C-alpha cells in the first residue's frame, strides 16, 4: 500500500464512514485511494472551507466520531482554517489532511508552495496555530506512527483538531511497515478527594436549604453526560439552566428547567441565578453571551463549583471556590456515588420563578413575518430526535430564544468562534452522521449567500437537509449593532436571488413563505420529502432580536 492507501485503511479501521474534501493535483492520489474504499463515503465539496465545517458537523453530536477533511496544498489547505478554528474552540476531534510541496522542490517557488521558505507562506505554522498539533509526513515508514499520534491527540484530554501535511512525492511511496494503530486516549478524571469536597458542599447546602443552581454548558454535550445530569438534578431536586451553547441538552419542558441563561436568556433563569447560593457549573467556558459580557461580580456572594475538562478554562474568567479539572461525565458519576454516602434527606420540589427575560418586541411590518412566530411554529412541529442548527446572525438569536426543545431534540449555534456560514455547510456533516434524524439549518440570507452553493453537494450525494432562510435582505444583527452604537448604519443591505429558483436549478425543492399560515404545511412537506429543500421565509427586518446590542 502507498501512503494514501494506508491512511484510508487506518480511517476505515477506526470506523470513519464519511470524509469531506476537495480535489487538487497535490492530493490526487488520495482521491484514488478513497474511490477504492468500500467503507468510506467521500463527499467532494465546492469549496474546501465547507469540507472543514462538514467535518465539524460530522462529530458535533457524535463525540466518538472522528471528523475528517482533506484538501490540496496551498490555497486549498488555507480554506480549512476557519473549520479548524471552530473545532479548536468547540472541542471537536477533526483530522485535516492536506497536500504539501515535494521534498526536492522546497524553497523553489513550486506551485502552491507553503513551506515558509523564500517568501512563501508557512502553512505548518498556520495549522499549528489552529490545531492541537500539526505534522509533516516526510517518510512513508512514519505513516502509521503519525496517524496513531494524531488520532489519539484529537481525542486526548480536551478534544480538538489535528492536521497532517503530506508532501506530493511522499503520497505514492510504499508503506512496508503497516500496522493497526492503537487508540489509547483517556478521559480526564478528577481526583476523588476533589469531588469529595464538591459532594460535601452540595450536601451541606441541601441540608441548610440553600439555593443550588446547576449551570449546564457546552462541555456537557461533548461529554454526553445527559443521564448523569438528569440523575443528579432529579434525585436532589436541583433547578438547572442551560447556556446558549448548551440549549436543549436536557429537555426544556423538564419541571426543573428554568430555561436558557445569559444575555438572551429566560427571565426565570436569570432571576434564579441572582438568588442562588451555590452554582454548580459544568462544562462552562463562561463565554461572553453567558456572562453578560464578562460581568465582573457575576458570582459575588455565591459559591462557585466549576467542572471543566480543560485546566485553561478553570479560573480563566472567574475564580472558582472549588475548581475541578475533569470530563463532566466521569466527574458526575463519582459525585453521584459520593452523594449517596451523605445520607441526604429526600427533597421537595423547589419554588421556581417563571417568564421570559425580554419583552415581546413590537412587530409592525404587516408584509413580512415576525421571526419569533416562525420559530414557535418550528418548535410545535419539530419531529422527535430532530436536530436544528442555527448559523451566525439575528436568526440565531430568534432560534435561541423561541425554540423549545423536548423529545430528544437538539439545537446548536455556531459556538464561540462563530463564523458565518459554518452551519450552513456543517449541517451536511451532521446529517451524514445522523441519517435517521431530521436535520434543519436555520440560516440568514447573508449566511446562505456565502455558502449556499453547497446545496449542489447535498443534491449530488442525496443528503436530505432542510435549510430555512430568514430572508430580510440585510446583515440584520450588524445593522442593529451599528444603530445602537452610532445611531447610523451603512452597507448592510443587499439583493437576494430567487432562492426558490436557485434550489430548483440545483435539483432541490424550493419554497417561498410570505405568510405565517403557509409555513407549517411547507415544513411538513419538506420533512416528508426526505430530500434537500430550501424554505425562503420573508421576515421583518425592523424588529429587534432579544439580545444586548449596546456598546462594548
Mean pLDDT: 91
**Number of spatially distinct domains:** 3
Gap from first CA to last CA: 56 Å
At the third CATH level, what is the topology name of the largest domain? Rossmann fold
Trace the largest sheet across and list its strands. Answer: 2-1-3-4-6-5
User: How much of the polypeptide forms β-strand, as a percent range?
Assistant: 15-25%
The number of distinct β-strands equals: 18
Describe this structure in words.
This protein has 552 residues and is an alpha/beta fold. It has 3 domains: 3-167, Thiamin diphosphate (ThDP)-binding fold, Pyr/PP domains (Rossmann fold, 3-Layer(aba) Sandwich); 192-340, 3-Layer(aba) Sandwich (Rossmann fold), CATH 3.40.50.1220; 371-538, Thiamin diphosphate (ThDP)-binding fold, Pyr/PP domains (Rossmann fold), CATH 3.40.50. It contains 20 helices and 18 strands. The chain has helices spanning 3-14, 28-35, 48-60, 75-78, 81-89, 123-130, 143-155, 192-207, 218-223, 226-235, 267-275, 328-340, 371-380, 394-402, 422-433, 445-451, 455-460, 476-486, 499-505, 519-529; strands spanning 18-21, 41-44, 67-71, 94-100, 133-136, 162-167, 212-216, 240-242, 257-260, 278-282, 303-308, 322-325, 387-390, 410-412, 439-444, 466-471, 509-513, 533-538. It has a 6-stranded parallel β-sheet, sandwiched between helices. α8 (192-207) crosses α12 and α10 runs parallel beside α12 (328-340). The mean pLDDT is 91.
